[in-house]
Every structure is written in structure tokens, then in C-alpha cells.
Amino acid sequence: MSNKPFSSFEMAQSQFDKIADLLGLDGPTQDLLRWPMKEYQFLIPIRMDDGQIKIFRGFRVLYNDARGPGKGGIRFHPQETIDTVRALAMWMTWKCALLDIPLGGSNGGVVCDPHNLSLREQEQICRGWVRQLSRDLGPQIDVPAPEVMTNAQHMLWMLDEYEVIRGEKLPGFITGKPIGMGGSLGRLEAAGFGLVFALREALKELGIPPEDTTASVQGFGNVGQHAIQLYQQMGGKVVCVACWDQKDGTSYSYKKESGVDLDSLSSIADHFGGIDKKRALDLGYEVLPGSAWLEQNVDILIPAAIENQITIDNVKNIRPRVKIIAEGANGPTTSEADRVIGERNIFLIPDILANAGGVTCSYFEQVQSNMNYYWEKDEVLGKLDVKMTAAFSSVLEQAKKKNLYMRDAAFFIAIARVAQACKDRGWV
Ligand code: NAD
Question: Is 82 exposed, middle or buried (0-12, 13-18, 19+ CB in 10 A)?
């Protein structure tokens, strides 16, 4: 066997292969579900603020739309690749199926670093991305959403460009829009809160009161901050948070044994979820290396930053006390590390379940936008709780019934649903 590490998409494919065998999927169904149905790679020329033209690379992958229009984020990242986009699009397909949402899966991105771009330049990239794809996106075709380093403003620029091209108002084209401009109340909190709804169910299953637990979190962006908010409201204590430091080009962990204070910590974080190191020291935080979040003596680990963070090299640093890993990020655990976590009997809430609150609420937003009728926040979060709890129960039940690892049980349910949709449509 080669020592080359798996790429994200290779990892996603190997997860699929394992479950496809378990499900006994026939050859054509496996061939269909192992690769994206459509993908687009294109260039976006932008006139920069200094008058120079710069060319940016863009991607969109529609993985599978047997269960409904594509749904998936758009990421702005200097290390964005078609491989990551494919993996995220595949996981999105399974995620929508697992939550039983009538949508397919997709993902997209642009190779760029918004830290080094003015707002005008970012707007031009958003508009350029939509122009390249305007015929292949839409409420009934494929619906984008924010992802790493994209936000509500980016979504609104994209919507505006799409509506200008189409000559009509189509707020269901994109989700994650600002409140009052077609956004859904609760969307901002959805991924982090959804993770905590699932975590609450896992703690119930293990018979552990939340107020007796502590947690360590990697990532202090949308998912990390909202997960911390609801988990602490439930009585849990977060003792360590890790994030990326743009200035130093590395990550740090910020530790406070008495528990991090979300309000003061978010007041010293930038829009990208980077914490100001000096001000954190002033607030009494210990500043540790980026890897320290994983090595804390806590009950719960929440990786909520980026993919490939728990690896075969660092999985051994997870303390014996850790009982639950709730994956806020997509693909934070490599396959080899995943095997170790399974062997150690740590209760895993896999990404396609743990962070599915984001897409569930995106779906709610799309429904509201298409109706042009908006719900109250409690209604949105109540519906989210119902969906997350139902999905968690079905995965746990499947895991117990078939004696499967939680990740495998989640994939088992999701892949079976997508395969059935392809069969029912007569594709295979
Ligand atoms: P974000 O951009 O708001 O925040 C990302 C956080 O991760 C920041 O705090 C950043 O500093 C930190 N980070 C980045 N690289 C890091 C590194 N190498 N080490 C330590 N910290 C690092 O992003 P987000 O929306 O919170 O998304 C986080 C993850 O959750 C991503 O994997 C995303 O795909 C996934 N996700 C997000 C949503 C959503 O609705 N926002 C939904 C589902 C899944």
C-alpha cells in the first residue's frame, strides 16, 4: 500500500465503497454514486483595486440530484481544490438524505484569500462566479450557501447578480442571506445549535448530565461559536478553543480551566473567527500551540474548523477521559484516525449528522424564500430540533440494530436513500 495520505475525496470515496459493499449495491449504482454527476471548473477575471487584472479559479460540483435540487456551500480559500469540492459535495448528498430533506448535494468554491481582498474585489468575485454558472444554478437546479470564509453579504451579491441576469426576483436561488433580505431567522445559529441538539441526545444515551461535562473546541467561527453558546446554556463548560492566526500563519489554542467566556472571547475575534492573541492573554487565557485543543482532559471534543485535523499522528493524544467527539467540521477525521476512535469506543457523532443543522436550516430558508413568507425564530429552531433529534435517533437505532459504528450507520441510511431514489427514477 502507498504511504501517500488520502485526499479528502479519496477518503469520501473509500467511506462510500465500504457502505456500498455492506448495502450490496449493484455495479452501476456504485459507479453512479462514486463520482459527481456534473462538475464545472472556470476562471473569473477581476479588475483589482490597483487597476491590475487578476484571474481567480472557480469550481462547482453537482454531486447527485436524484432526491431534489443540488444544495451546497461555496468556500473562499487559498487552498481550495476540486478534490475538496468533490468531497464536500459528496458528503452534502449523504447529509441531505440522512436528514430526509428533499435536496441533492453540491459544493463550490473560489481559490482566493478574502483576508487580502477588499470588499469591492470580493463582490466582483461573487458576481463573476454567478455569471459563469447562471444557467446551471437556481431554486430548482442547484442552490448555493455560505461556507468557510463566505457570509451573508457574499450571498446577497450573488443573489443580486443572479436576479439581474434572470430579470426576476428569485430569493430561493441562494441561502444564508441577510435577515430582512430573504434570510431565515435561526440560520446563523443552525449548524452550531444543531450539533448541540445531537450532542444532547448522545449525552442522554450515555446517561451523562450535560452540566457534568467539559469540552474543547477547534474553530471559533460560525459553527464553533454557536456550538459553544448552546452547550454552555445547557450547563457544559468549554475549557479550550483553537483557531487560525492569520498574522502568524499558524493556529493557537486558548485555554481557561474555569471555562471560556463566549461574549468576551468573541469581542476579540475577527469576522473570520481568528482570536486576537495579545488581548486573549490580557483576558487571562493561556496561549498554547494549535494542537493543544485535542490534548485536553475533557469529556467532549468538537472539531469545528476544517478537514483532516484528527490524524493517525495525533489521535493517540486524545485523553482517556474523552467520551464523545462531535464533528462540527466536514471531514475533520482521517480514515486511519477514525479506526482508532472506533476501537477506543469513543461515541462519535459523525459530520454528516453533527453539522447537518446548517443545511437543514438552509432548506427551511429556501422554503420560506420560495413562499415569500418567513417564520419566527423559535419556529425555525424548533423544527431544526425535531429534524436533528429524529436523524440522531435513526442513526443510533441503525447502529444498534446492525452493530455499526455511528459513522457507518449514518452513511448506511443516507446512501441507501440516494441509491433508492436513483433506482426509482430508473437511472440504474
Ligand atoms: P468559519 O470560517 O466561520 O470558521 C472557521 C474557524 O476555524 C475559524 O475560527 C478559523 O480560525 C478556524 N480554523 C481554520 N483553520 C484552522 C486550523 N488549521 N487550525 C485551527 N483553527 C482553524 O467556518 P464555519 O462556518 O464555522 O465552518 C467550520 C467548519 O464547519 C467547516 O468545515 C465547514 O465546512 C463546516 N460546516 C459549516 C456550516 C455552516 O453553516 N457554517 C455547516 C456545516 C458544516
Answer: middle
Residues with CB under 6 A from ligand 1: 147-149, 191, 218-224, 242-244, 251, 272-274, 290, 304-306, 328-330, 355, 358
CA angle 240, 115, 5 (to 5 degrees): 65
Rounded CA Rg of the chain: 21
Helix 335-343 to helix 8-23 angle (10° resolution) is 50
Cβ atoms of residues 412 and 404 within 8 Å: yes
What is the side-by-side strand order in the sheet with 214-218?
A: 286-289, 250-255, 237-245, 214-218, 300-303, 324-326, 347-349
CA of 152 to the centre of ligand 1 (A): 15
Q: Is 383 helix (H, G, I), strand (E, B) or coil?
A: helix
What is residue 5's predicted lDDT score, i.e. its pLDDT? 58
The protein residue with its alpha carbon nearest to ligand 1, atom 31, reads: 329
**Digit-coded pLDDT (tens) for 169-187:** 999 999 999 999 999 999 9
Distance 359 CA to ligand 1 centre (A): 15
Kindly report, residue by residue over 8-59, the tens digit of the pLDDT: 899 899 999 999 999 999 999 999 999 999 999 999 999 999 999 999 999 9
CA angle 364, 231, 152 (to 5 degrees): 40
Calculated CA dihedral for residues 269, 270, 274, 279, nearest 10 degrees: -40
Here the cell at position 376 is 419566527
Q: For cell 436524484, what's the residue?
A: 66
Contact by Cβ (8 Å): 362, 71: yes
Q: For residue 253, how many C-alpha atoms fall within 13 Å in the half-sphere facing its CB?
A: 19
Residue 51: partners with Cβ closer than 8 Å, 6 or more residues away: none
Collect all residues with Cβ–Cβ distance below 8 Å to 240 and sequence separation of at least 6.
216, 217, 253, 254, 255, 256, 260, 288, 292, 293, 296, 298
**Residue 374 above 50 pLDDT?**
yes
Asked whether the beta carbons of 338 and 349 are under 8 A apart, the reply is no
Phi, psi (5° rounding) for residue 100? 60, 45
